[in-house]
Specification:
Blueprint: E1 10-12, E2 21-23, H1 25-38, H2 42-56, H3 59-73, H4 90-116, H5 122-135, H6 151-162, H7 168-190, H8 195-203
Antiparallel strand pairs: 1-2
């Protein structure tokens, strides 16, 4: 079906059903790989995007809560963030810590929000998440397995925010996206480009 140099534009339906996205052969292979890893149907993606709107409406509070819970789940993590471990005493230490929690919590939620609002462009999402993973290399003592501490607080945040809307179907969707985010963050931190898988997919054509 054409030479490897020809650009076959594959039409991928957006989750929002607004515009189809045109991909060339290589980009389409990447998209299929990412979608397979995510493991959600278009219907599940639509559920994720619509339910996320309720959570993201109060990003600042949710971000701080999420970040605090991450540190509660693993005390080790805090030592990898110098800003969150200042050599201050008393009220100054508390004030600096609270501000650092707030700032980093908002950053985390903003990036998650950006990703979940662009799930119709999975290639872009993966690139954004990997950049975030790679960014954490600058924190001395940070280990990629720390990203796994994101899972329970993220699920807990979704559950408390959605209340009665948090059905078994919604839970399955949030567990899938949490695992996807964590694994992609780890890949970004480790600098694993997935080149071999992409090459295998394209070369099999």
């Amino acid at each position: 079906m054409g030479s490897t140099n020809s650009i076959l534009e594959q039409q991928i339906p957006c989750c929002s059903q607004k515009y189809p996205i045109a991909y060339n052969d290589r980009q389409f292979a990447e998209y299929e790989l990412h979608k397979e890893k995510l493991g959600l149907t278009n219907k599940q993606l639509a559920l994720l995007i619509s339910s996320w709107k309720s959570i993201s409406s109060d990003m600042q509070a949710q971000g701080v809560t999420l970040f605090v819970e991450i540190f509660k789940s693993n005390n080790e993590v805090i030592h990898a963030f110098p800003l969150l471990n200042p050599n201050l005493k008393g009220n100054d230490a508390k004030s600096a810590m609270n501000e650092a929690f707030r700032e980093h919590g908002i950053k985390v939620m903003s990036r998650v929000n950006e990703v979940l609002h662009n799930l119709d462009q999975l290639n872009l999402c993966v690139s954004l998440i990997k950049q975030t993973g790679a960014y954490h290399r600058r924190f001395q003592g940070f280990k990629p397995q720390y990203f796994k501490n994101f899972y329970e607080p993220f699920i807990g945040m979704a559950k408390s925010s959605l209340g009665k809307k948090y059905t078994p179907q919604t839970e399955a969707v949030y567990k899938a996206i949490a695992n996807f985010l964590i694994q992609t963050l780890i890949d970004g931190y480790n600098g694993e480009p997935e080149q071999e898988k992409h090459n295998q997919t394209v070369n099999s054509q």
